[in-house]
């Protein structure tokens, strides 16, 4: 058994640890290893293209601890995984939600809803969110935007993780939109068809 504590806890007696574990009077031999939480688990780096713009933004955290602020309404409209979010949020009411939701954090007296996406890498999630942010733009405009944002090799590196994110979180329009944007590029279309299988 591994008991993780944050670094602010300096020491616990064996009796206090056993009491925390609910094993106050146990005749069994127990080995307890106490390890500090890794700093990687505690810090989230916010992607510079996805800074918080309003108090209704939701913070999505990728598997590699990169955060992306997004409008919850955009997420609910475009991502199957979040499709019921606004309905559930309104039905629960603010008081109930704030007292029961452990994924909310209080930053400068402002409630921020945090959702960890363990199946999403930052490279894949970033490409998906960029495509969603430009979904009403004509394909040529999105193509220019992606060319300014990525060098071609980085775009190719993000492609497979983005399609994995789209599959894991029910975002069917990503493959279609990227195929539409890269319609004149045979190599990208081939890559999309291979990754999108």
UniProtKB/TrEMBL annotation:
Domain of life assignment? Eukaryota
Specify the protein name: Uncharacterized protein
Q: Which organism is it from?
A: Kwoniella shandongensis
